[in-house]
């Protein structure tokens, strides 16, 4: 055994002792420790078990109702974390990207899958990437994408219609699974002119389809080992569950992505057919070589390549989940479904323009209310990379009776941003905040919601500031196209009792059947043709 190995083994106990000391020191000196918050049932896991086993939005809402908009909760080894739905605090955090970063566990888990894309990079590199990517998501580009949205939505409609014919008047479908397929096809076509063939009747997923599905599930599977790897980089070279699956998937995505990138460069240079010059990747490549972008701020091939899985994740899983929750809400609120259908059936075509679609007031209200009530991500996290002072709009009284109008944040402290906590706040939205009520958008909203620092719709769903969702217009339009197409064609009901459907979150909040959690997210729906008299 070499001297270096012996020395390394000898120093392990010392290093472990140092980590334990650091753990207790940080907890003892934490500025969060005296804030109000829920009790813990486990020193090892803190409140983590309750958080995992509960429906996130409702669970955190209970905390806010009991302890206020800014509270302390505990994670592993009883370490304190801050949870806030305070609009002033959220605005400060979201607009100070050089102070508040995404935590290492978020970067490590997603970065293994996407590479250095918009989800991963921080500070100046994020600012430079966003400047280059932004033109691809302009309102003008969306007009062309809407053609693909309708093409795939109508394809899904026809598949469901054929299932109804086979079952004689009514069929049961998994709404979430079919929406996953539709949105994957859409982002393939709009993102890089690639056909995933997810809606293909043969049901055979192609190579990139399989690679994305396998890679995404491996990258987002939460485990204790993932947490250890995110905190201790030295452990990342050790094998872990799903590593081989992720590595194979990433290699496949990179190989196909490089071919797509090569084609995009030829298109940008005018050296090949222009058939895919309007997809996101081609637009990005063209923007990247624009003379207005200084050479030192342009993206490398690795950076551009990382946008492929970034586009797929952002434009696929979140939109399918959000639309699934829309169908869930409409199946529970049949009067809303009928009112929406009445408006949609007044449109004389299956394929309205983007302007005509956006002029439908009740469709707009339903989409807004669903994104408020069922945010795809109920919360997100940040970690301070510098000391800071966090201002509060609602003061907090700590356990010592001290009223705090601000909280001192130390470098390394973690904060959970309450997306659903804000979206469902009675203080902001009124006493009916916990009701699914599209009609709220038909009249003036409460003045308090103007303080919400969101990029769209006076809500936190798409976040805000420099890291606000760059593709929110894309997501909203695709949801509108899907609801327009499906609600015009079908009566939609839940195929199981409503009590059977719960939400679980792994980055994105999905519907699950309560006694079939291990089967993954699903939304069983009963569909039938709309009667001509309606």
Give a description of the structure.
Helices cover about 50% and strands about 15% of the residues. The protein is α+β, with helices and mostly antiparallel strands. It has one domain: Orthogonal Bundle (Cytochrome p450). The strands form 4 sheets. The chain has a 5-stranded mixed beta sheet. A 3-stranded antiparallel beta sheet has the order 4-12-9. The chain has a two-stranded antiparallel sheet with strand order 6-7. β1 and β2 form a beta hairpin. α9 crosses α11, α11 packs across α13 and α14 packs across α20. The longest helix is centred in the N-terminal third of the chain and has 29 residues. About 40% of the residues are buried. Keywords: Heme, Iron, Membrane, Metal-binding, Monooxygenase, Oxidoreductase, Transmembrane, Transmembrane helix.
Quick recap:
The chain is of the alpha+beta class.
Portion in helices? 40-55%
In round numbers, the mean pLDDT is 86
| Poorly predicted regions | none
Strand order of the largest sheet: 1-2-8-5-3
The CATH homologous superfamily is termed Cytochrome P450
User: How many discrete structural domains?
Assistant: 1
Principal-axes shape call: globular
How many β-strand stretches? Answer: 12
Residue share in β-strands = 5-15%
How many distinct helices?
20
What structural category characterises the helix and strand content? alpha+beta
Largest sheet: 5 strands, mixed
- What is the first-to-last residue Cα distance? 82 Å
CATH class category label: Mainly Alpha
Which fold does the CATH topology refer to? Cytochrome p450
C-alpha Rg (nearest Å): 24 Å
CATH architecture: Orthogonal Bundle
